[in-house]
Amino acid sequence: MPAGSLTFLLEKNRIYDLHVNMPGTPTISRGVHMSGTTTAPTSGTIQNNLIYGMNNDGAQYGIQNNSVTGPVNIYHNTIVLNNATGAGTSNTNAINLSNTTVQNGIDMRNNIFIVTRGGTGVKRIYDVSATSAPFISDYNVSYLNAPGGTQTFAQVGSTNYNTLIDWQVTGKDLNSVSQDPLFVSRVQEIYANKFPG
Predict the structure, then answer these.
(1) What pairs with residue 166 in β-bridges?
(2) Rounded to an integer, what distance in angstroms lies between the CA atom of residue 197 and that of residue 188?
(3) How many other C-beta atoms are found inside a 10 Å radius of the C-beta of residue 173?
(4) What distance in Å separates the CA atoms of residue 104 and residue 65, rounded to the nearest whole number?
(5) CB atoms within 10 A of CB 136
(6) Per-residue pLDDT at 57
(7) In this predicted model, what pLDDT tens digit does every residue of 134-151 receive, in sequence order?
(8) Residue 23 — very low, low, confident or very high, per pLDDT cuts 50/70/90?
(9) Coil, strand or helix: which one is 189?
């Protein structure tokens, strides 16, 4: 979403196979990227989307928000960052709030976030560049279980929260759970059936 996108609606999309023909590529993969400034604000809703299949070696962000104003609602999305054979040394974040200015008006509820990517980079559910995080986040299912690298549930500024329980001390995700959602079949089959292309 470019800066100045007002009241956008991004819904019912299957965003997948980013960099499928370019494994080993160090560039960034973003399922959804938003930008915005105080003079060109961005506001809208991202809901009922499926983001999966990134296989680049660079950073991976399920949803990256670089805007400074909102509101931005992130509801009922499934983000799976699970390229176990990836050799990446870059960060992997389900949600990346990348503006160093405090980002206001973000509401994230009823999502599934899975980060099980390989490589030696840092893996997180939430990565917030600003020193405070005045957003709403609750009723989410998060699963962080990467085979390598450093894992922290969330980071705000330079403060790390290693687990969901540590993160809940901030008042966020009080009704969320941290566990494998246990898809009943191969992930790609479920996605194809649940979100027909």
Answers:
(1) none
(2) 12
(3) 24
(4) 11
(5) 15
(6) 82
(7) 899 999 999 999 888 899
(8) low
(9) helix
pLDDT at 55: 82
d(CA 25, CA 65): 23
Burial class (CB in 10 A: 0-12, 13-18, 19+), 140: buried
Q: What is the C-alpha to C-alpha distance for residues 17 and 176, in angstroms, rounded to an integer?
A: 28
- The one-letter amino acid at 123: K
Judging by beta carbons within 10 Å of its beta carbon (0-12, 13-18, 19+), is residue 17 exposed, middle or buried? exposed
DSSP 137-167: EES-EEEE--SSS-B-SEEETTEEE-SHHHH
Within 8 A by CB and 6+ apart from 123, the residues are: 81, 91, 92, 93, 115, 117, 144, 146, 149, 150, 151, 152
Q: Tens digits of per-residue pLDDT, 163-174?
A: 999 999 999 999
Bridge partner residues of 15 (DSSP)? 51
Burial readout 22-54 (b: 16 or more C-beta within 10 A, e: otherwise)? eeeeeebbbbbebbbeeeebbbbbbbebbbbbb
As a whole number of angstroms, the distance between CA 82 and CA 84 comes to 6
- Report phi then psi at 168, rounded to 5: -65, -20
Task: Give the start-to-end residue ranges of the domains of the chain.
Answer: 8-69+81-107+118-136+147-189
Query: How many CB atoms within 10 Å of residue 193?
Result: 9
